[in-house]
């Protein structure tokens, strides 16, 4: 289904498996754009993959796009422009309105075919100003937006209800979005990494014809090669644990809403039945959501929870780990646990990494969805903020070998549905389709103003 919105917005996204008519270089039909020539600017505000999930996603996508035949350039804040091993350009020093104007001027001078904004408030210092980018770039610039975080805006303080009502009017008229300003309505393609984000878009804009494409993410940690190593024994030895220890593992950025205090309490209860159980909490405490003193306080609170429940010697905090070490840890784990307060969605790269490694996995469902441990698509789902249910789930996985084996196989199959090469191939074809339609519209005189004097390219040639 193709939808049209008022104003500058052109044809919107097809379904993931729908027809895209781009071809590889050297095999193009009339009107088609060779994928191999495309150069894409991936706009990511804070390119710090060690502390931000959207940045890590952007890093993976950029590398895989190059493997798929595209050129990719990460457009980010100046302080990240010297990140080793990445093709990066600094476009601004901050992401407020003035900073986004500077970013737009810089991006306009780059030899790009398509601009792709990776939108999440945390990735832009919790500023919505990047949502003005479509108005600041030369009109007709091919623009794609991926919503990584969406549906989190709240109208706090005095007059919050009135502001929310005003935003609702603008959204029903498809003029602006309370969360992403005009980015949502001006993008040539609108992607989401979780289906519930598409539901929020449709609810806000009150128009199911507004096409939103769900493109799942892939595991954020590749499965490392073993090379004959006895990984379970080696990992336990590296952590100072006995070789017969049972390992429950949490992996990801630490955050107050991820239910880690409840997980510590649950492990303490399970240890009364399975005394060899250890909990490994792997991940950095510093992120763009929690940093500085707040990150230190959160770590102290978790350590205090371990002391309070009498399991301090049996809870290991690793801090940030390189990808290969995370892979080895997951290979050694008996169970992976993700007890987020709001539930864990399929856009969690950590969840997918655990599934891809064949680890029996427990994760919370959205509030109200379940009242007891339930198998759902390779994951043993439990209600959030329910320590008793989490204890039951841990005991089930650690004592029922058949259940653990079934979860491992089903989880791996689920993770294998989407891989980074497949995601990159979809993006490459989508970019080519966006550019093909942009060229067609320009040829028909449908563009509002020419992209002359900018660096935006057409068919691999920089405009004069």
UniProtKB/TrEMBL annotation:
Its EC number is 2.4.-.-. Residues 52-214 form the Glycosyltransferase subfamily 4-like N-terminal domain. The keyword Cell inner membrane does not apply. Keywords: Glycosyltransferase, Transferase. Transmembrane segments: none annotated. InterPro entries: Glyco_trans_1, Glyco_trans_4-like_N. It is an enzyme of class 2 (transferase). Residues 236-412 form the Glycosyl transferase family domain. Residues 1-23 are annotated as: Disordered. GO terms for molecular function: glycosyltransferase activity. The keyword Transferase applies. PANTHER family: GLYCOSYLTRANSFERASE, SPORE COAT PROTEIN SA. This is Glycosyltransferase.
């Amino acid at each position: 289904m193709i939808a049209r919105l008022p104003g500058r917005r052109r044809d919107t996204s097809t379904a993931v498996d729908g027809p895209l008519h781009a071809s590889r270089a050297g095999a193009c039909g009339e009107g088609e754009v060779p994928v191999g020539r495309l150069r894409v600017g991936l706009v990511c505000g804070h390119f710090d993959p060690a502390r931000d999930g959207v940045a890590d996603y952007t890093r993976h996508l950029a590398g895989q796009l190059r493997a798929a035949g595209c050129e990719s350039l990460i457009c980010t804040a100046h302080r990240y422009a010297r990140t080793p091993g990445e093709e990066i350009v600094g476009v601004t020093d901050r992401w407020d309105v003035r900073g986004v104007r500077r970013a737009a001027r810089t991006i306009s001078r780059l030899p790009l075919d398509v601009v792709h904004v990776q939108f999440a408030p945390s990735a832009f210092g919790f500023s919505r100003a990047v949502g003005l980018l479509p108005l600041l770039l030369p009109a007709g610039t091919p623009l794609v937006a991926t919503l990584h975080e969406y549906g989190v805006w709240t109208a706090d303080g005095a007059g919050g209800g009135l502001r929310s009502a005003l935003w609702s009017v603008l959204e029903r008229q498809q003029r602006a979005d309370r969360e992403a300003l005009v980015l949502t309505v001006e993008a040539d393609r609108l992607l989401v990494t979780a289906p519930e984000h598409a539901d929020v878009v449709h609810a806000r804009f009150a128009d199911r014809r507004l096409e939103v494409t769900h493109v799942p993410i892939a595991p954020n940690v590749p499965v490392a090669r073993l090379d004959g190593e006895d990984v379970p024994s080696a990992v336990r030895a590296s952590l100072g644990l006995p070789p017969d220890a049972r390992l429950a593992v949490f992996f990801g950025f630490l955050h107050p809403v991820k239910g880690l205090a409840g997980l510590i309490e649950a492990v303490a209860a399970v240890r009364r039945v399975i005394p060899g159980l250890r909990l490994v909490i792997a991940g950095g405490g510093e992120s763009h959501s929690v940093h500085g003193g707040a990150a230190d306080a959160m770590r102290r609170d978790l350590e205090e929870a371990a002391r309070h429940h009498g399991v301090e010697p049996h809870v290991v905090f690793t801090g940030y780990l390189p990808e290969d070490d995370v892979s080895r840890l997951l290979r050694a784990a008996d169970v992976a646990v993700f007890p987020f307060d709001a539930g864990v969605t399929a856009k969690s790269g950590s969840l997918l990494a655990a599934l891809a490694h064949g680890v029996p996995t427990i994760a919370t469902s959205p509030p109200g969805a379940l009242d007891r441990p339930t198998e759902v698509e390779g994951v043993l789902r439990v209600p959030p903020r329910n320590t008793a249910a989490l204890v039951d789930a841990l005991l089930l996985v650690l004592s029922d070998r058949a259940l653990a084996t079934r979860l491992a196989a089903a989880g791996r199959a689920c993770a294998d549905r989407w891989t980074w090469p497949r995601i990159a191939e979809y993006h490459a074809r989508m970019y080519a389709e966006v550019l093909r339609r942009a060229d067609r519209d320009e040829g028909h005189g449908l563009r509002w103003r020419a992209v002359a004097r900018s660096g935006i390219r057409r068919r691999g040639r920089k405009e004069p």
